[in-house]
Amino acid sequence: MTANSSRGADNRPAPAGALRLFLREGGRYFAASCLALGADALLYTVLIRLAGVHYMAAAPAGFLLGLALHYVLSTRWVFSARSVTNARVEFIVFSLIGIGGLLLNQVVIYIGVEWLHLAPELAKVASAGASYVFNYGARKALLFSTQRETRWPVRES
């Protein structure tokens, strides 16, 4: 490792570089999540309050809008490393993780509204926290690893 390099001999970030990378990506991921959540919550609220859509139907619509926005922000602004070289495969895996987050989202909202008798908007706040932790961890580990090892050996054709 050279004095000016932030990577070690194994191409992993040096401790100080890894911390800077985590703080930069973590801050950007949080900002992207806030924007995606804002789009999600806005559509969710408009659908249940203005359009009369049932909250369990409105939740996936909002979540999917947030998912699309989050993918664009994650791939263009948040993460500097990519573990998948094929953009279609990357989007599919990103979306599958999002579907896992959506299932978690639905369960938390259902429990909040039906069992805990929370307002749908308050249940949505709880679901956002659970989905955030799940989605970040899975996406960072599977799609945006700083180790630069291609875990998914799929190349652009």
Describe this structure in words.
The chain has 157 residues and is mostly helical. It is built from four helices and no strands. It has one domain (15-142). 71% of the residues lie in helices and 0% in strands. Helix 1 (15-50) packs antiparallel against helix 2 and helix 3 runs antiparallel to helix 4. The chain is elongated. It starts with 14 loop residues before the first helix and ends in a 15-residue tail after the last helix.
Number of strands: 0
Helical content, roughly?
Answer: over 70%
Radius of gyration: 18 Å
Tell me what portion of residues adopts beta-strand conformation.
under 5%
Question: Largest sheet, if any?
Answer: none
Mean pLDDT reading: 84
| Approximate shape | elongated
Number of domains: 1
Low-confidence segments, given as residue ranges, are: 1-5
**Structural class computed from helices and strand pairing:** mainly alpha
Secondary structure tally, helices: 4
Question: Could you give the order of the helices and strands?
Answer: HHHH
Distance between the termini: 34 Å
